[in-house]
Amino acid sequence: MSQSSFGKKFTVTTWGESHGKALGAVIDGCPAGLPLCENDIQKALDRRKPGQSRYTTARKEGDRVEILSGVFEGKTTGTPISLIVFNQDQRSRDYGNIACSYRPGHADYTFDAKYGFRDYRGGGRSSGRETIGRVAAGAIASKILSEIGVSFLTYTKSIGPVTAEHFDPDEISRNPFYMPDAEAGKAAGEYLETCMKNQDSAGGVIECRVQGVPAGLGDPVFGKLDALLAQAMMSIGAVKAVEIGDGTAVSQMKGSQDNDGFCQKDGRIQKLSNHAGGIMGGISDGEEIVIRVHVKPTPSISQPQNTVTCKGEEIALEIHGRHDPVIVPRAVVVVESMAALVLTDALFSNMSARMDHIRRFYRETE
Amino acid sequence: MSQSSFGKKFTVTTWGESHGKALGAVIDGCPAGLPLCENDIQKALDRRKPGQSRYTTARKEGDRVEILSGVFEGKTTGTPISLIVFNQDQRSRDYGNIACSYRPGHADYTFDAKYGFRDYRGGGRSSGRETIGRVAAGAIASKILSEIGVSFLTYTKSIGPVTAEHFDPDEISRNPFYMPDAEAGKAAGEYLETCMKNQDSAGGVIECRVQGVPAGLGDPVFGKLDALLAQAMMSIGAVKAVEIGDGTAVSQMKGSQDNDGFCQKDGRIQKLSNHAGGIMGGISDGEEIVIRVHVKPTPSISQPQNTVTCKGEEIALEIHGRHDPVIVPRAVVVVESMAALVLTDALFSNMSARMDHIRRFYRETE
Amino acid sequence: MSQSSFGKKFTVTTWGESHGKALGAVIDGCPAGLPLCENDIQKALDRRKPGQSRYTTARKEGDRVEILSGVFEGKTTGTPISLIVFNQDQRSRDYGNIACSYRPGHADYTFDAKYGFRDYRGGGRSSGRETIGRVAAGAIASKILSEIGVSFLTYTKSIGPVTAEHFDPDEISRNPFYMPDAEAGKAAGEYLETCMKNQDSAGGVIECRVQGVPAGLGDPVFGKLDALLAQAMMSIGAVKAVEIGDGTAVSQMKGSQDNDGFCQKDGRIQKLSNHAGGIMGGISDGEEIVIRVHVKPTPSISQPQNTVTCKGEEIALEIHGRHDPVIVPRAVVVVESMAALVLTDALFSNMSARMDHIRRFYRETE
Amino acid sequence: MSQSSFGKKFTVTTWGESHGKALGAVIDGCPAGLPLCENDIQKALDRRKPGQSRYTTARKEGDRVEILSGVFEGKTTGTPISLIVFNQDQRSRDYGNIACSYRPGHADYTFDAKYGFRDYRGGGRSSGRETIGRVAAGAIASKILSEIGVSFLTYTKSIGPVTAEHFDPDEISRNPFYMPDAEAGKAAGEYLETCMKNQDSAGGVIECRVQGVPAGLGDPVFGKLDALLAQAMMSIGAVKAVEIGDGTAVSQMKGSQDNDGFCQKDGRIQKLSNHAGGIMGGISDGEEIVIRVHVKPTPSISQPQNTVTCKGEEIALEIHGRHDPVIVPRAVVVVESMAALVLTDALFSNMSARMDHIRRFYRETE
Q1: SS3 content of chain A, % helix, strand, coil (to 5)
Q2: For C256, which residue in chain D has the nearest alpha carbon?
Q3: In chain B, what is the greatest distance between 2 CA atoms, to the nearest angstrom?
Q4: What is the mean pLDDT of residues C135-147?
């Protein structure tokens, strides 16, 4: 059993492998009447496309998306939207030497353990290219959210030991790392040069902040907003930790420090601080939602590593080919996409939370 | 829409409020033929029961569980197992003063925002008592897992700034904090006394290590084992961060440090290290699974806090009544229970992963 | 794996066996703010309660329902509603002789084949008492539906060869068979007397008509309204066929006879006929929804029947004890309840079908 | 919300419209190691392809399927299988005149009522072409089932008033109607000629018989095998009734007639008759499973029909273009496909029904 669908009301099913014919997603449960064209989706895909800087893989992929169904006369019809991206630059020979050995830090061994064999070309389904479907679907979710006033600010918080200390939103798109701090961006570049020289790789931290989320989203107790965000984030390959709001820091705080008080401001109830990161008891509280994910260093490195072949023979493996020395920058849009999927689903689920709202809804749509 | 069910094949539905008549869980999908009695479940519930030390609430609850269905002649029948725990010590008067104000750090405001009103008695559904259903169900999951050789070691890693530096498994049950380090336990007690004196509260870190998990569990890409563990953990009230294996530390590591090499040992393929925490590509790799959760300080503190009433009036609120100065120790078994639920579900899902296994299964059960 | 939950947004989980301690249901996803008391549910349960006429089992059960959670100050809170009915008259000795033989027409053999053993007391989970949870949950669904103007008319269309030829809605509650035709009711009674004298039993047909369903409910292609109604109905024990609208008759009709034309009437589009039974392409069309189910005769009969013991020994079995000579009248409310569950779920699902409705919803709830 | 996925463990998501670029399906949860090539699927698609006789639409579609993912070196990998069929002969002009009027018997009106507008080209998503995804997925399910000894016999039982009285399995593929009776096939052809001459259409009955299903499949109480088959069948456009075993006839039978006795034969327990159609209490009993579906006449007829435009104007509509005078023959493989999907899902679900089987499974796969 694989589990390639995500979301209960706005459901995304992704498919495809690194070196197969194509990758794609089917979006089920998209409301009718949303204006949608391929460019809406392409813009998001371009943010994760390889080959945009010297710090990403040299693989050449245009990653052009095509809408195959669910859109008519420029608007969604309410039926499933099928999206496809054809693979173009599948140089399988690059990966020939790893067909029968287990790369450290990769899923080669576990796929074999589970399925008995694997599509070893470029990591198959466990490749980062799998996220194409997520980003394509996330772009649609983001468009829905933007129509009710939700917006995202997602960026690289740190690469290896280099952390963004300042926050300038305009800077995010100006450096190849999507860091909101020009100096940190420069330092990150230098750090990566050293890593590359040493045939090594780096990890980092991505932060996603969401504004304009209405209070009330999230469904206790297992569909809490933070619980679903955690699943969404941890399902991204290479993510090893997820934090909401103050995250790991709360374990050392006292109640008097961590609690967010309330006040009355501008005619509505607001919080005096936001340690909680916009989610209380698993439900959005109307403040900014803050998510942080920790991404491990790219496992593909070209220095020799100890491993075994499928037959258990011990070898020293050198992985050559085309790899990102850090995947964090390209994962920024993936994090944002997953957050958008969770929020859209929560948005729809929430519509039947109150009997008075249901009554009004059906009175008005009559 | 609430979401009170968890798991696809081994499905738990929990219900109940802090001050309602009772709380419980329905377990659907439990295989037939598992020996099960109330005591199997009671042992787990006793680990979270209040009133076991001076560091937990003074509320008196026996938390006796009763099996209402699904067990016949000492064995599960394959039909839904209904479990119930009646509330006994619901002193609602304790909570009268919070009926119409929003306690900082609690879900009062968000429940009102979502549902239009709330059961304010003791936090209603957002109370920690909600975890009774999780622990009761988790006990059954743990029993299933133990039959195939899976075992748990779950403990408090830190309370506030006090971290367990040594690891002595026997010590875990000897101190009221479930810490594997006697000295740290003593220091934690002292730290908590200071918090209590200051009408304040503390958070902490819980670590769960799982041995004997067969390689191959977990279903990419959205049902990855770590993704579902993250959802499970973050769905526990007060948890604000989840880590797998080296967790947040990976973002500062290099590929050469983080990658786990492979070797051939004792006739089978093993890993040379376990930075990944037993999960690669979302699938268990046969090594110990390591999960860490960060728990925020108890939000109920008796020092005055700024907040508003339901009508938006600003007030200084003092919360009296019966509260734990730290919930970490009682949450240890909740973390273990949620891990057990995830693993049991993954165990069952995995059975249809390979055609040769399916063929053999049906040949043998004919 | 058992599957004891039904519905995606309004989800019901039922549990309990014929001779266990209790039976019940957990309703998850009920909107907050619905006025609800035990009597709302009791009225529905009383329609299926045994012992109301000489044509039902002599088992004495008050079937009193208790609400354990999810309701506060007379209104639903949006959290799971747990309902329980304790068994009272479990005379297990009645069933002793069937512990080790397979009753024809019952699920004894298949439960053993699947689960390895079974709770043989009164059929265990496969007993008709399992429907208590469905009816209790259905009562809440019906209450929700009534708030938006949906109402039900459910009755016995035929018992054995006796069919109701006239339709007088007032008559339905006047005869023990819930037939809308007094004469047919009388004839049905006579037919059943003969069956009982011959130690035999009878089946029949139940028809459910639903008024006031808004056009637009149902989710193609697998969640079509008729598809979910078919699942719901066929999941009731003893149902062997389900029809929508003209049902089986359509296979012999021509397109010109079966097609429902449209007209403009009273300012809105209406249909000229209703062969489709209110559902077109899996979506409600605003006309009356018509469902018919065919119920097999009670399998428990006291004349000797050929069967085998669990060990394969051939025997002639006589089933004594307390049985209904026909279950149709008591199943009327079960059919209605299942229809209500399907419609409520479809009602909630439909709320996110259109972008303009979503925009308006969130603008108005701000 | 649309619901385009079916099955819990073997999950199919279909997408695509009659006149869009393509149609397809994603199969999630297919076990690894199943030999699979495009021809396995093509053979099933060819059974529903248009243009095979003078009794089907003149639309020219090769309906060539392409596998885009999930298969490597001739075997499934356990990852999602994406299948695509490009549309070729979309003569949208044929449908221009129905863009703004509601065809009787079609889903035009209900799609508008639900979604606010619709893809009117050829019925859009509500077209019979939607079943391409079902058939493609069903072919994979059938291949899995055949590996454990399950086989299908599906045929046309009747067309309009013409019923197959004899049963010759070899005859099924010899006539354009898939009837197991040569004479009936001839009579059906004559009946259809008359219908066509009168610009009218016909319905019919399809019967599906499944051999070799192991006892024990099906998950009470809502995932009963017959309940899921009913949903599956009723989700096929134009199906208005579903019967299992003796179906509608049971309502007039007595218990003594309908009950299937048991005997001991060839070393195993068997039934003396099969009125139940192979399913008892929602679980397969090891005998032949018998399903019957009633299909309505093709709604597209060219004689004038009363209807309204989208604006409510009353008109007489004549539908010209390319239509099947009866869809029953082409729906035969659709019925079989849906049955295969249900059975495969039940096959996988059943693997975790017993603790002893789970223990053995994990002992053997170690």
Answers
A1: 35, 25, 40
A2: D200
A3: 70
A4: 98
D134–chain A Cβ distance below 8 A for any pair: no
Two structure tokens written together for B292: 């860490």
- Among C287, C281, C273, C140, smallest CA distance to C214 is for C287
CA separation for the pair A250, B299 (Å, rounded): 11
Q: What would the two tokens of residue A312 be?
A: 């258990």
Least CB-CB distance to D200: which of C5, C106, C255? Answer: C255
Inter-chain Cβ pairs, chain B and chain C, closer than 8 A: 160
Chains in contact with chain A (at least 3 beta-carbon pairs closer than 8 A):
B, C, D
C-D Cβ pairs (cutoff 8 Å, strict)? 389
- Percent share of chain C, pLDDT over 90: 87
Q: Which residues contact C243 (CB under 8 A, 6 or more apart)?
A: C291, C292, C293, C294, D240, D241, D248, D294
Find residue D324's DSSP bridge partners: none
Non-local (6+) Cβ contacts of C6 within 8 A are: C12, C13, C232, C235, C341, D222
Q: What pLDDT digit, counting tens, does each position of C251-295 carry?
A: 999 999 999 999 999 889 999 999 999 999 999 999 999 999 999
In DSSP terms, which residues pair with A65 in a beta bridge? A85
Phi, psi for A303 (deg, rounded to 5): -75, 155
Contact D172, D184 (CB under 8 A): no
In B, minimum Cα distance to C31 occurs at: B1
D245 chain-C contacts, CB cut-off 8 A? 240
D211 close to D153: Cβ distance less than 8 angstroms: yes
By the CB < 8 Å criterion, does D214 face chain B?
Answer: yes
pLDDT higher than 80, residue D260: yes
Q: In this structure, what DSSP letter does residue C33 have?
A: T
Q: Are C180 and C332 in contact (CB under 8 A)?
A: no
- Sort out which chain B residues have CB atoms less than 8 A from A353's CB and list them: 1, 114-115
Question: Is A284 in CB contact (< 8 Å) with chain C?
Answer: no
3-class SS letters over A158-175: EECCEECCCCCHHHHHCC
d(CA C220, CA C230): 14
Give the phi and the psi of residue D81 in degrees, each rounded to 5. -100, 120
Q: Which of residues 221-250 of B touch C (CB under 8 A)?
A: none
A15·D115 Cβ contact <8 A: no
Contact with chain B for residue D212, Cβ under 8 A:
no
Q: Would you say D244 and D226 are in contact if contact means Cβ atoms under 8 Å apart?
A: yes
* ipTM of the complex as predicted: 0.97
* Predicted confidence band of residue A53 (pLDDT cuts 50, 70, 90): confident
CB contact under 8 A, D312 and C264: yes
Average pLDDT over every residue of B235-258: 98
Banded pLDDT at C91 (limits 50, 70, 90): low
- CB distance from A79 to chain C under 8 Å? yes
B29 → chain D, closest CA residue: D353
Query: Under an 8 A CB cutoff, do C355 and A144 touch?
Result: yes
Under an 8 A CB cutoff, do A15 and D4 touch? no
CB within 8 Å: B352 and D351: yes
Task: In whole angstroms, give the CA distance from residue C149 to residue D43.
Answer: 49
Give the minimum alpha-carbon distance from B273 to chain A in angstroms, rounded to a whole number.
Answer: 10
pLDDT exceeds cutoff 90 at A94 = no
Nearest-CB residue to C80 (from B4, B72, B116): B4
Q: Taking CB atoms and an 8 Å limit, are D219 and C106 in contact across chains?
A: no
What confidence tens digit (pLDDT) does each residue in D136-180 have?
999 999 999 999 999 999 999 999 999 999 999 999 999 999 999
Say if residue D93's pLDDT is above 70. Answer: no
Alpha-helical segments (H) within chain C:
38-48, 108-115, 131-147, 182-197, 225-234, 255-258, 328-349, 355-364
| Region of residue D45 (phi > 0: left; psi between -120 and 50: alpha; otherwise: beta) | alpha
